[in-house]
Amino acid sequence: MTGPAPDPMEQVHRYLRGEVDVAAPRDAATVVLLRDGADGPEVYLLRRRSSMAFGAGMHVFPGGSVDPRDRDASIGWAGPAAAEWAERLSCDADLARALVCAAVRETFEESGVLLASTGDGAMVRDTTGEAWEADRLALIDGAVSLGEFLARRSLVLRADLLRPWSQWITPEWAPRRFDTRFFVAALPEGQRTRDVGGEADSVTWLPVAETLDRHRDGALELMTATATTLRELAEFADVASVLAAQRRVRPIMRRAVVVDGEVRLVHDRS
């Protein structure tokens, strides 16, 4: 027989009492993969395994931490330069390049979708074959870097297929923290997502509105940043309008404040 679930606010109270060592956030990238459906934009979601240390059981977008090798300046690249991405993401060019590379790498690792083309602009199509799967697993295992993988296939990363969306920093009371830039991207023509396993025990495409309805009904768990992103996307009729949106990316982080003796969690937008 299991005991009662831990109070999620206990860590917040410990933080306010000065009992928590604040961890430095790790740079990370997340990609909201979109396609048009009968009822508006649909999103690709993974449900993280219940055994995961971070976000267990939550439905999330593909993403993860920046790998040191994502900073390789020799990675084949097409689209806006790193300096332009730095302005969009409010960071230096080196980090901006790494974030875009991490976004492309993580999307392939966690969905099988590759935002890349040949040097003359011919987009990658079907990536469901055995050779592609071997490459995907090699990336996950760290046996090959993004740069090595792309170079071996004579491909370049397509930075122009991504759009910046938001930046969320995990609250200071959390034991594992991330400084995550959210991107949006359309599912490239001819490519298909697949059940990739690994950190996820299921994957699905869902209309944005349905995802929010299921979350409100308690049938689908979402982290605050994911739910907020979906509410923002619900304002758009199709993927093209999402990609055309002009976004100001600034850090968002939940903070704990005490008002009349009561602890409240608020979103601090820089």
Automatic annotation (TrEMBL):
SUPFAM superfamilies: Nudix
Nudix hydrolase domain mapped to chain residues: 24-228
Molecular function terms, GO-annotated: hydrolase activity
Superkingdom of origin: Bacteria
Cofactor(s) this protein requires: Mn(2+); Mg(2+)
InterPro entries per the UniProt record, alphabetical: NUDIX_hydrolase-like_dom_sf, NUDIX_hydrolase_dom, NUDT19
Keyword terms of this UniProt record: Hydrolase, Magnesium, Manganese, Metal-binding
Full protein name: NUDIX hydrolase
Organism annotation: Blastococcus brunescens
Lineage: Bacteria, Bacillati, Actinomycetota, Actinomycetes, Geodermatophilales
